[in-house]
């Protein structure tokens, strides 16, 4: 039996966990209609703006994915735009390659440049990528300006226009129709990506890289992929730009182009793909307006002054509408939905016996926390036994009970002169609960962090399921079944409660970025969502499944974190102070749950300040004091160990023992 029995008839949620596909279809249909009609109705100035908006929408979508999803800022998107354009122009003009080959070459060159910058930079945390891309922008601009091959300041020109079935694309209307399908396809792929397993993982990384890694997300690989994808879209934009203006020049890589792209993304709303397209149109309109307005206000002003206009708009948006247009639209939409719902409730109240039997015929069946094949308890109804203890699913353990699942040998962590953990060794047997206790600052969390890969030990080894994992990133252990919770909660606040627990299923999923973009992972997603919901019901969190995770009370956030860790079907679960902040009732429930999980075969290591709880729960207890392992054994032996008593209470052993007993009685 696995930890989570999967519902055989997993059904699609009707509660809105997945963004509304119908809305996307309607949106894309309207956009397509506008694209078809616009060239027949727009003035030539409008058509010119529309063409450039479409061209810039591509790098803007890329930047939006990078900044909104991957949480990385690029100040040099124009560099990839220029690399795409120059490569395309060079292949066309100097090597006389066919248009399609030259275009693909432009995109590939931009992606390769991104790999070159991203591979070293994305390993580092912080804003290094922003600085590196800013530098790249300057390098590209200066290189093409100084290099004979790229035409110096004059640039490259004289290459032909694109042709489709022998028809030259030689006016704005045709060019608009030529670019638009690429933008629409890019839009759909990007929308799919944001909803996919990979997209959700990226948002989670934004919320808490440590928690995402601990659930098996390889954050570095994902960021590199999104950065490369983002550069590819910029390169494609550059290819179209080169075709449209019929010249490529160093200005394309200038900083103000990157700022323009940044403005499009911020104005539209970070991470919103629709917002990026809207932002592209608005900034192009704005830029047209500023071109006339600025010389009228400041006679003799050059194009540089336009940057001041962009800067002002950027500041205003950040101050007044930090979520951009996307946020504004969402706020209005939410208000409309609230009013509609209120009206519906009022109307229902007028109908005698308005208790409709809605959906009774298609109630989902669940095997988890209920009887297989029988209608499930509604979300929010706790699946509990007669004593109020949650039902616990079965557990699969890769080892026989008592075999070493985790071996820690000579684990040491020094911070300058501070030895946080000093030569600690212990073994955790499978199917047992091990308590790790010690006074404040004893080194418990540091120990956890070294075991899970959050920090690298100064020396020592951590062997999990026979493989040394010390010093490796947390996702390495997580993929093999090593999952943890955190002393300081690490909630994915950008999503709801079910979204958090769904992320716990990450290591069970397979779909990558490509499958995500193509929308070929529906089954896997719906199945994992159902499992997440089932688990929430079992943990009595079903009633808050749709709430924003950050809005939950502290105690329920802790329970949600445990639930999220369980969703990953771990072989070894490390819990860092899971009882902290819980009510007495919640503590009791959690203790029962842990006992039941252990009885089902799960191995648990528990760091906890509630010593009485640990001594009552654990099969073995390790005690740290000042980084040193001072006791290790069965709870009874540890309870009476004078060294432990002195470490905890810092007084005479007999007196301390008496105090400890009193404490336990009152606990
Ligand atoms: N990044 C760091 N730099 C310097 N010292 C650190 C760092 N992290 C932890 N320490 C020190 O290492 C020691 C152990 O800290 P740790 O947080 O592991 O203890 P703990 O047993 O988990 O404490 P608590 O129960 O209060 O959470 C403490 O003295 C702490 O100040």
From TrEMBL:
The keyword Membrane applies. The keyword tRNA processing does not apply. Keywords: ATP-binding, Cell membrane, Membrane, Nucleotide-binding, Transmembrane, Transmembrane helix, Transport. Residues 406-651 form the ABC transporter domain. One of its GO terms (molecular function) is ATP hydrolysis activity. Its main location: membrane. It is a multi-pass membrane protein. It comes from the Bacteria. SMART domains: AAA. One of its GO terms (cellular component) is plasma membrane. It is found in: Cell membrane. The chain crosses the membrane at residues 21-40, 46-66, 97-119, 126-144, 175-194, 226-243, 263-286, 307-329. Pfam families: ABC_tran (PF00005), BCA_ABC_TP_C (PF12399), BPD_transp_2 (PF02653). PANTHER family: CONSERVED COMPONENT OF ABC TRANSPORTER FOR NATURAL AMINO ACIDS, CONSERVED COMPONENT OF ABC TRANSPORTER FOR NATURAL AMINO ACIDS-RELATED. This is ABC transporter domain-containing protein. It comes from Agromyces bauzanensis. The lineage of its organism: Bacteria, Bacillati, Actinomycetota, Actinomycetes, Micrococcales.
